[in-house]
Design brief:
Helix 2 crosses helix 4. The strands form four sheets. Strands 2-6-5-10-4-11 form a six-stranded mixed β-sheet. It has a single domain, classed as Lysozyme-like (3-Layer(aba) Sandwich). 18% of the residues lie in helices and 20% in strands.
Length: 202
């Protein structure tokens, strides 16, 4: 498989914690990280509202506490839920940012990574618009790889192996990003964006 070089080099503003090129929609569902905690892990999730439908705007409304949970039967369980992610990458590659990276988003819940509990404290949560079994779009992989590269540059604690799915940090409780997600392809894209070459092989 030939993997094209990541198309854009994105940067994170060290003062604001915002990703270049992302639309910032501040979520109230966040707080300060514990003292001395910095991003050291990137957690990949998926989400769609209603389940399996894309482009409705309801994910954005959920993270902003503006979702009408009476509008659909499947939304009733979301009443009073306060969640967020740092980024949402939509099917067309558009990136929305809800929480600055230096703040703690509420995305992981009960979780554990390499012996450490409470992954929200030291992680960045990135949601992909999708489902466990629906193939993600090529542009979503490219935007995700670009965001990962930007995070690695901004936060040295995020190493190349510091990528996990929600399923990995909350096994048995969560299943996303699911079998449809191609981890090898993402890793190849991230590595291709770092070596200065035109292509990389995976």
């Amino acid at each position: 498989m030939r993997v094209c070089l990541v198309e854009r080099i994105l940067f994170i503003d060290p003062d604001t914690g915002l990703l270049e090129g992302a639309r910032f929609l501040p979520s109230p569902n966040c707080d300060e990280r514990p003292s001395a905690s910095v991003p050291e892990l990137v957690v990949v999730h998926n989400i769609s509202l209603p389940p399996g439908r894309f482009g409705t705007g309801d994910v954005e409304r959920l993270f902003l506490n503006r979702l009408d949970t009476t509008a659909r039967e499947e939304y009733r369980d979301l009443e009073g839920l306060h969640v967020s992610a740092h980024l949402l990458i939509e099917r067309d590659g558009r990136i929305l940012q809800f929480v600055p990276f230096h703040r703690r988003a509420w995305h992981a819940g009960r979780s554990r990574w390499r012996g450490r509990e409470r992954c929200n404290d030291f992680s960045v949560g990135i949601e992909l618009e999708g489902t466990d079994t629906t193939p993600y779009t090529p542009v979503q992989y490219r935007r995700l790889a670009e965001a990962v590269r930007a995070l690695e540059r901004a936060y040295p604690g995020i190493r190349p192996d510091a990528l996990a799915g929600h399923q990995d940090i909350a096994p048995g409780r969560k299943t996303d990003p699911g079998p449809a997600f191609d981890w090898d392809y993402l890793q190849a894209l991230v590595e291709a964006g770092d070596d200065g070459g035109a292509h990389a092989r995976a």
